[in-house]
Amino acid sequence: MYLADRHRPAPPGAPATRGAQGRPVRVARTVVLLGLVSLATDISSESAAAVLPLYLTAGLGLSPLAYGLVDGLYSAASVVVRYLGGWLADRLDRPKQVALAGYTLSALARTVLLWTPGAAVVAGVLGVDRLGKGLRTAPRDVLIATSSDPGSLGRSFGVHRALDTTGAMLGPLLAFLALWAVPEDYRLVFVISLAAAVVGVALLALLVPDLRPAREARAAEPSRPLTVGASAASPDARRPTVRMLAEPGFARLVGAAGLLGLLTLSDAFIYLVLQDRNDLAALWFPLLFVGTNLAYLALAVPFGRIADRLGRARVMVLGHLFLVGAYVCASGPVGSLVVGVGCLLLLGAFYASTDGVLAAAAASVVRPEVRGSAIATAQSAVALTRLAAAVVFGWTWTLLGPGHAALLMAAVLAVVIPVAWLILRPAAVHGARR
Fold first, then answer.
1. I need a labelling partner for 345 at 20 to 30 A (CA). Which of 12, 90, 180, 351 fits?
2. Domains with residue ranges and CATH for the chain
3. In the structure, what pLDDT confidence band is assigned to residue 256 with cuts at 50, 70 and 90?
4. What is the mean pLDDT of the chain?
């Protein structure tokens, strides 16, 4: 296999991969609870995100290039604190508290949208929201990995992402219903967004257990000496990224993911291409998010299981082939409903095969004490390179038009996928199952 996943002993209280009769057991309760937290939070974020592209471009008059800069800034803001969130989760051995701070920050940002601010303030709100998202993502994923059996990480992340995507699907649907009931009343959508964010924070604070990954890892392996991140007093705890990147498997995973991120556009940008070429009414724009998330919801768990069996890094790389297809469909014939639906399905398959799978791959090639830093490093590499992709695509759109720009992205991505595959290949460990 290409990138081997290390086998770790299950943490105390984690479910076994199979029961006494060899049947798969249920996913851990903590994973389901975190999925419900993400469900509520995604209702909040995606209901607002479903109208913000049109609000900024049509309502506030931003050009495609300016939107590309705002969208890129949206992603860059999360990069600033994404690693900090993972590092704090490892350093303090308190991932729940770090995640809670991130969720709370995003909820507070939603209150500003109720004032119907201008473009500059909206851009600032998006940045604060992404700061919260960056802070919470890695600690949340650490909680998922800590409460799961090492052999079923892909499945656990798939279940979480399926619940997460349910919220991502309901959010745009609620935005559509709100705009249908009261046309152009964006404030109503923002009220819904804030209410859902508060629910998510309450669920995390009250129901999710306060897991201690480093302490549980030491309890499972009492004879093992402290390693990176195991203690705040350890000198090595201050250099987790250096130590992780020295491991060939992890370094190659980050390199391949970052390279692919250079050719990865946000779904909102792809939807703007679809709307431009198919002349969709503003009322129907939020339903594009629903279509993609419906496909993601259906495929997240199956792709997680496939990744556990065939290799998480391998599935992550090959999942970008779906993105190539989505780019081609987005630039396809004007007025073609079939091509438009195909674009949404392919985009959903892309997210199902890459999002949670990347986190599972990063968590499986490092020790439990540095999972937060590892996941954050991999996700930050992708977020940072996607910033460059957003800006370059906005500039290319201005020069070539949306259709030709999307086709160019598809062609270059098709060339880069085999390169990423080759980057991962030397990381194989002979005889490893995954």
1. 180
2. 29-213+246-427 (1.20.1250.20)
3. very high
4. 78
